[in-house]
Amino acid sequence: MFHGSMVALVTPMHEDGSLDRERLYRLIDFHIENKTDAIVAVGTTGESATLDMKEHCQVLRDVVRHASGRIPVIAGTGANCTREAIELTHCALEAGADAALLVTPYYNKPTQEGLYLHHKAVAEAVAIPQILYNVPGRTACDMLPATVERLSHIPNIVGIKEATGKLERGREILQRCNGRLDLYSGDDATAMELILLGAKGDISVTANVAPRLMHQMCAAALAGDRQRASEINERLLLLHKNLFLEANPIPVKWALYRMGLLSRGIRLPLTELSSEHHAAVLAAMDAADVPYK
């Protein structure tokens, strides 16, 4: 349903932490100009954990309205409360998003049956295409391939963002689901290999900083051109690594600030990138020929 480089978009903020809608609109235009294939709004990278319900829905509406059909919009609507996830997913539907991305319920550590019933409840409550999101390093909750297989039979569950970075996990999901849902990488460092295995694209942090290169890399991998994809990915490897020197989105927001696309705004408990990591992030930007001040 979706393919290529799908940016996990940051949420621009003023230095006092309030939402910066003008810079949000500029970022959307920046990604359209640089061939990003889809925008994922208010996910982990978009600081969904620190936006209240009103702000969350407002950002979704702003992104859909400004994108105006020029690029697909996938709305982050996951929560560790099923009722809240349903409410946020309703917001995405009403805003006009093309799909919703739902992270596994974090912190409360549901069983596999609980994960199945949670995602089933949201899918049945809101008639919008839904993409599962498995990132156990963040959530302390791992949705196993057998559970993904069960969920793949629900018609409006159309994909999964698999962020374990384990290629064998991706291969097993592809085999079990047999084309019933699309697989997307949620780990930039292994995205190229996962696409070459059969994934449809990458929901990417790196794409915030190097959108055109990420689009080109994903397109080459989707075409089965390993040599071309590898040549491009080689230039991106330091970004894939160094944008995670501190918790995402701390490094990527600092990089975008240096690019002149954001102010320094980030919400507590996250803080600005530590000075000890500045040189490493700039070196990664240099390797990908990303201009900065």
Question: How many domains make up the 3D coordinates?
Answer: 1
Number of strands: 8
What is the number of helices?
A: 12
Q: Any guess at the CATH architecture?
A: Alpha-Beta Barrel
- What is the CATH T-level topology? TIM Barrel
Tell me, rounded to a whole number, the average pLDDT: 98
How far apart lie the N and C ends?
A: 38 Å
Query: In what order do the strands lie side by side in the largest sheet?
Result: 1-2-3-4-5-6-7-8
Percentage of β-strand residues: 5-15%
Helix content range: 40-55%
**Structural class by SSE content:** alpha/beta
Largest sheet: 8 strands, parallel, barrel
CATH superfamily: Aldolase class I
Please tell me what the overall shape is.
globular
Radius of gyration: 18 Å
Q: What is the CATH C-level name?
A: Alpha Beta
Q: How would you portray this structure in words?
A:
The protein has 293 residues and is of the alpha/beta class. The chain has one domain (4-223): Aldolase class I (TIM Barrel). It has helices at 21-33, 53-67, 82-95, 112-125, 136-139, 145-151, 167-177, 188-197, 211-222, 226-242, 250-258, 278-287, and strands at 4-8, 38-41, 73-76, 99-103, 130-134, 157-162, 182-185, 201-204. An eight-stranded parallel β-barrel has the order 1-2-3-4-5-6-7-8, surrounded by five helices. Helix 8 packs parallel to helix 9, helix 8 (188-197) runs antiparallel to helix 10 and helix 9 packs antiparallel against helix 10. The longest helix is centred in the C-terminal third of the chain and has 17 residues, at 226-242.
